Input
Amino acid sequence: RKEVEQDPGPFNVPEGATVAFNCTYSNSASQSFFWYRQDCRKEPKLLMSVYSSGNEDGRFTAQLNRASQYISLLIRDSKLSDSATYLCVVDKAAGNKLTFGGGTRVLVKP
Amino acid sequence: EAQVTQNPRYLITVTGKKLTVTCSQNMNHEYMSWYRQDPGLGLRQIYYSMNVEVTDKGDVPEGYKVSRKEKRNFPLILESPSPNQTSLYFCASSSYIQPYEQYFGPGTRLTVT
Output
């Protein structure tokens, strides 16, 4: 079993719709969780950190469920520019043992 | 401008010819790392460094070497490249202050024939 697993997609989303997807992790000792965005073979960029209480940043909402060992990302009112691959990242040791999921591809269409 | 730079961006080489990919950051970050990204396998960590002269293996270190003689630089060395090292390579840096955001370089696309 992979340490961090994601549905690779693609999720085809009509513009303006809501899309949500999850990421599961296997190491219960994981400390920090992140969502990164990667555009077409470019460098990944931090989208948001994921906190225990859940957090929101504009149209993006992230949730953490430690009991079931998954994190989720919800995108509301999808824009064409949201088309990208979203990488789930789990950190076992305060910033220096990151494990990346394979990514979930999202395609927003007019 | 805060950034991580990598050179070269593209490289085609032959099996066995030693090469070095440079990585430099201007953010005074303590932590630096190298990843490779392959289709279906995602990003995998090769080596990381927590500070000058402190390096450690990641998940896929075989065939690679690194050094950290200066805080800003973290070169990746392939002593004898092989075709299975054909990949997209990213260097990243971060500080030890939350949220531990990793800043990635633009990537180096390496082809070994």
